[in-house]
Amino acid sequence: MIPDNTEAKKLYRDIVKNTHPDKIKNQKLNELYLEATDAYEKNDIITLYRVCYELRINFDLPENYVDNINQKIYSLKKQISFLETTYT
């Protein structure tokens, strides 16, 4: 999924304000910073939304992303199911 770059950039900047290791000395927040940086570089806007949610940063979720989120959930459920059946 390729997100709207302006939306991803806005979300990322909001996350960085609250988590950047040069300004915030908190391991959990610094880990979220690294996760958000990785997500931003990969254009993974769903992870950026999740990090914003975890940090209680307000955002508006565009309706067209709901389908993408549902597709990702479905894909992850398939992967989990596959791993569960092949684990034994």
Characteristic terms for this protein:
88 residues; 74% helix; mainly alpha; globular; 4 helices
General description of the model:
There is one protein chain. The chain is mainly alpha-helical. 74% of the residues lie in helices and 0% in strands. It contains 4 helices and no strands. The protein has helices at residues 5-19, 27-41, 45-54, 63-87. Helix 1 runs antiparallel to helix 2, helix 1 (5-19) packs parallel to helix 3 (45-54) and helix 2 runs antiparallel to helix 3 (45-54). The longest helix is centred in the C-terminal third of the chain and has 25 residues, at 63-87.
Question: Could you outline the blueprint of secondary structure elements for this entry?
Answer:
Blueprint: H1 5-19, H2 27-41, H3 45-54, H4 63-87
In short:
This protein is an all-alpha fold and 88 residues long. The chain is built from four helices and no strands.
Strand content: under 5%
Q: Biggest sheet, open or closed, and with what strands and sense?
A: none
The DSSP helix count reads 4
Radius of gyration: 15 Å
Question: What is the general shape?
Answer: globular
Give the N-terminus to C-terminus distance in angstroms. Answer: 33 Å
Which stretches are poorly predicted, pLDDT < 50 over at least 5 residues? none
Which percent range fits the helix content?
Answer: over 70%
